[in-house]
From TrEMBL:
InterPro entries: Pectin_lyas_fold, Pectin_lyase_fold/virulence. GO terms for cellular component: extracellular region. This is Pectin lyase fold/virulence factor. Its main location: secreted. GO terms for molecular function: lyase activity. It comes from Dactylonectria macrodidyma. GO terms for biological process: polysaccharide catabolic process.
């Protein structure tokens, strides 16, 4: 056996009575492998004196552990499939294992010293006074075991501003955020772990693969996109203290339309707010459009948000004169979340965050969405709702929607006077037009 070090960090929970943010310890480990590996996890007997239940999540992976002599054993055979080992139903004191394929094109320190375009950090602790600032044509390489420490998780570890043809590679750890602004042709591909967020703003041709993050601080979003085009995010794991993955238009000094945004092959866990939130922020003075959003092959592991207005495992809260068009949600599996709502597709004017209503949400296909509930948690009714006759939700097509094993479709067996949406359950509100199942 080879021992995998575990690292202690925190995850968050909001007290629904006081609003206080509680912090809970959790652990994660990272390793690379090819082929099949056998894993043995031994929970601390002072924390778990007995093991009554074990789940390896995402449940869709179908990993059945064996428990004996206080040890949990299972096998992994697909690198980049990250797993959570949950014991006795405790969703905080878990072990999260982030895995990657064995790196085949590692850059050595000698190679980096011979190439002025490579910024290299070797194994060990690197105390950053300022963010690593990458310029056009540069490659940042983090060797396995490199730790970039920023003063706070709300700060920035690495920034790419006004640059093109930039790459970030390797296997390192960043204590704070990754930021890409006003840049083009950027690739962040490797096996990176972070306790900060990830910002992509007013940029195009961006590829992110292998990013893993856990946050516990206030407004601890996992990944936020603003006014960007041709972005692919894949094989990421985000457990966050605010929205896991959000796509917006104008905010602050970011302007412009968004198009061709893809999130795929990933796992999301929102201890606060939404796993996915799209469309909130925009520019009422010069309205913007978001066209072409693809969300594909995801596992949503959890969602906990007591505020009904901010619920939704998949939420479109289209405000600020935004128009969102041509959306595909395909092959998404939602596990038994603690508190929230499956879907919220709305055109809104939220006076806390908007200065105007959205223009509309149009042409949405939701295909092979599967949700399984235990019935033990707070699940509020899903909703599709427009704002007005000319600010509506139009053309939403559900294909292969499965709720607790029931295929929900317009030709299902039900009383003729029932709406198909009752079987979700879901409210089809005003100005929601041409919703089909």
């Amino acid at each position: 056996w080879s021992q995998v070090p575990l690292y202690l960090t925190q995850v968050a929970e909001i007290n629904a009575t006081t609003g206080r943010s509680l912090k809970w310890p959790t652990q994660f480990g990272l390793f690379d492998y090819d082929g099949t590996v056998h894993v043995s996890v031994e929970p601390d007997p002072t924390v778990f004196p007995t093991i009554s239940s074990v789940r390896i999540r995402p449940l869709s992976y179908g990993i059945e552990p064996k428990v004996s002599d206080g040890k949990i054993r299972f096998s992994l055979s697909q690198p980049q499939r990250n797993v959570v080992v949950e014991v006795n139903g405790d969703v905080f004191n878990v072990v999260t294992l982030w895995t990657n394929e064995i790196e085949k094109d590692a850059i050595s320190e000698q190679e980096a010293s011979d190439d002025s375009s490579i910024v290299y950090f070797g194994p060990g602790y690197h105390d950053l006074k300022d963010p690593v600032d990458l310029k056009s044509g540069q490659t940042l390489y983090l060797a396995s075991g490199a730790y970039l420490h920023a003063p706070a998780p709300t700060g920035i570890s690495v920034q790419i501003n006004n640059a093109e043809d930039v790459a970030v590679r390797g296997r390192g750890f960043m204590s704070a955020a990754m930021s890409i602004q006003n840049s083009t042709n950027v690739a962040v591909v490797g096996g990176f772990a972070s306790t900060g967020g990830f910002l992509i703003a007013q940029s195009n041709n961006v590829h992110v693969s292998g990013w893993k993050s856990m946050t516990s601080h206030q407004w601890g979003d996992g990944m936020d996109l603003y006014c960007s085009q041709d972005v692919v995010v894949e094989q990421v794991f985000l457990r966050t203290s605010d929205d896991c993955f959000a796509i917006y238009q104008h905010r602050g000094y970011f302007y412009g339309d968004s198009s061709n945004i893809t999130l795929r092959d990933s796992s999301l866990w929102a201890d606060v707010a939404h796993p996915i939130n799209i469309g909130t922020h925009g520019n009422p003075e010069n309205p913007e459009t978001m066209d072409g959003v693809t969300i594909q092959n995801l596992d949503i592991l959890d969602h906990r948000e007591p505020q009904v207005d901010y619920e939704g495992c998949i939420a479109f809260t289209v405000g600020d004169e935004n128009l969102v068009t041509n959306v595909l949600v395909d092959d998404v599996r939602v596990e038994d979340f603690r508190w929230g709502m499956l879907l919220s597709l709305r055109v809104v004017f939220n006076k806390k965050y908007n200065t105007g209503a959205g223009r509309g949400l149009k042409n949405v296909v939701i295909k092979d969405l599967v949700y399984t509930s235990s019935g033990d948690h707070i699940v509020n009714t899903a909703v599709i709702l427009g704002y007005s006759e000319d600010r509506s939700v139009d053309n939403v097509d559900f294909q292969g929607l499965t709720i607790n094993g029931l295929h929900v479709w317009d030709k299902m067996t039900k009383p003729s006077w029932f709406q198909t949406s009752d079987s979700v359950p879901m409210i089809l509100g005003s100005f929601a037009n041409n919703v089909t199942f």
